[in-house]
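In keeping with the milestone schedule agreed at the kick-off meeting, the structural modelling team has produced records for the first pair of proteins. Each record is given below as a sequence line and a structure-token line. The laboratory manager (R.T.) confirmed that both were archived under the project's standard naming scheme.
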Amino acid sequence: MAKSNKQWLRRHVTDPYVRKAREQGYRSRSAFKLLEIDDKERLLRPGAIVVDLGAAPGGWSQVAAARVKPGGRVIAIDLLKIAPITGVEMMQGDFRAAKLEGVRADIVLSDLAPNLSGVANVDQARGAELAFAAIDFCRKMLKPDGVFVVKTFHGEAFGEVMARLKREFGKVMVRKPSASRGESSETYVVARGLLAL
């Protein structure tokens, strides 16, 4: 096993959020990122319609499904197959081609990340491309007063992503949940109030 794989495995096994996820029945440690963002921002509410982009393995969808009850709806979309989650509709495929007839979301969640190459500039560009595609999705599927939560990565493309979000939404806030590893360049942005073009 390569040294970097051993380091990752050691960090993963000792990670308190990994342990908490197992104890509390979440599919991933990322559930705690959304829980913290939601506790601060009060996004998820009973009856809300949520679309979760890049949902696998389903940690964010689990959180959303629990918090939009009763009467809410969660639609999880990913290229990968996701094991069933109570209260969540699954769609396997590329969200850019998803057909969601008659759906206008109150909240669009995007914890999308590209397959990493290890080349910072390439990974930055791929991450930005996914963020832009998720913004395009919001243009079609998000209610004007809806909320968009998107993962972004600090680096060369971060400014471009932030500039586009500020052009398209009335209020844009950056959040770095404590469950996000300190050494990670990931950041989350909460954008509200889709502006007319």
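The second protein of the pair:
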Amino acid sequence: MSYETLKYEVEDNILTLTLHRPERMNAFTAAMMRELIDAFDHADADDDVRAVIVTGEGKAFCAGADLEKGGDTFDRSKRAEEALGNRDRDGGGMVSLRIYESKKPVIAAVNGAAVGVGITMQLPMDIRLASKKARFGFVFAQRGITMEACSSWFLPRLVGMQQAAEWVYTGRVFDAEEALRGGLVRSLHEPDELMPAARRLAGEIAGKTSAISVALNRQMMWRMLGADHPMEAHKIDSRAIGFMGQSADAREGVESFLEKRPARFTMKPSRDLPDFYPWWEERKFS
């Protein structure tokens, strides 16, 4: 795939998406929004992609919204209809929602500064690894705006209400150690070890697991974050394990274990997801 603001590279069943505006610290634009959504569409349709890593080019992951328009940056009345034809929608939120819908696991490799939408777009990603030089900031209150990219839903669920409140109310930029203590990232790495660590993790997923199992497990966990009773999990668990229990991948998973050999899973998300997927009601913006 060829994009203006991203690099799209697939190797060893791992897609690496690199935010690629290093001259602007990979600042987020309408073009980047459209290209990220398109890239995840292509990743979901490509059975050769088993896991996705998102990182940034140069010294930043993403410095947030591009502020080149000055004080009018966030004034929607003074911009074109750039959010895929709907000026009323938050572009960062459209990216977050698309990542949330992903059939493939998503790993953030946070190489540098990640503020504003640069951090909120990471929240629907499954696992975040960070360079020890990374910096984070939910800086909205210091810019006179509010949270975006669905972060008011994701952030408290990931780190708890108290930690989310502190970071959002102060709007301060904090270091990677604080991000780790607060549960925002999974691990810290020397800068030259970040991508190897992310690739090892992605490779463990891509090389040893059933793609259908991962796709179903990913959505089962994310969707249950909003459930009001464990019975909702029991309902979908029962349908999912009933479907997978009689599948070719389940047979292969057991037989390969008994025969002490690597599994060769053959089921593909593009064709083999169960008839009940998706089991949730699609939400519309209105």
